[in-house]
Amino acid sequence: MYFVGIHVSKRHHQDVVIDEQGALRGDTIGLSNTRSGIESLLERLEGLDEPVRIALESSGQYWLCLYDQLTFQGYDVAVIDLLQINAYRKTGIRKAQTDPIEAFWIADLLRFNRARPNQIPEAVRLQLRELS
After folding, report:
1. Which terminus of the chain is more exposed, N or C, with fewer CB under 10 A?
2. Residue 5 phi/psi, 5° resolution?
3. Which residue from 77, 83, 9 is spatially nearest to 42, judged by alpha carbons?
4. Across residues 27-33, what is the average pLDDT?
5. Element (H, E) at 54
6. Is 130 strand, coil or helix?
7. Is the pLDDT of residue 23 over 70?
8. Which of 14-18, 20-24, 88-92 has the highest mean pLDDT?
9. Pick from 53, 51, 77: which is nearest to 65 by CA?
10. Rounded to whole angstroms, how far apart are CA atoms 36 and 97?
11. CA of 60: how far to CAs of 102, 117, 121, 126, in Å?
12. What is the mean pLDDT of the chain?
């Protein structure tokens, strides 16, 4: 099984794929927060030869489109609170914080099954939340 961690930001996302031992599988890939960026991520995921679990951080509203597309394609996606990711990152020795490192911590948190995903409200409730 592979674990995919996605660091979400306004314009660019960063994704990392690790295996069950925590080793990187392929390069870390930066993708734009656009339809073509999400399509390139989906192509990468389809090219993997093992089942995939995906986790991404709930950064503002920037994760919503990515979450919708991944779940529409049938992927199991955990949306993790940023505070939980930051607390888990502090267990490591190195204190560097870059987008690829952040994506790795998200994938690793999922690998150890410590990712407690947020409850995702239905679409209407999300729209009302954005309006208010």
Report:
1. C
2. -110, 135
3. 77
4. 81
5. strand 52-57
6. helix
7. yes
8. 14-18
9. 77
10. 27
11. 16, 15, 14, 12
12. 80
**2-7 β-sheet, strand order:** 29-32, 12-18, 2-7, 52-57, 77-80
- Cβ contact 15:31 at 8 Å: yes
Tokens standing for 12?
Answer: 């660019």
**Can you tell me the distance from the alpha carbon of 19 to that of 31, in angstroms, rounded to the nearest whole number?**
21
Structure tokens at 5: 């961690």
In this structure, what token pair is assigned to residue 112?
């150890």
- What the block records as the tokens of 21 is 């031992």
Determine the Cα–Cα distance for residues 16 and 54; give it in Å rounded to an integer. 10
Q: Letter for the amino acid at 2?
A: Y
CA atoms lying within 13 Å on the CB side of residue 61 = 7
Instruction: Record the tokens describing residue 119, joined without a space.
Output: 């409850």
Packing angle, helices 99-111 and 82-89, rounded to 10: 90
Q: What is the pLDDT of residues 36-52, one digit of tens each?
A: 888 888 888 888 888 89
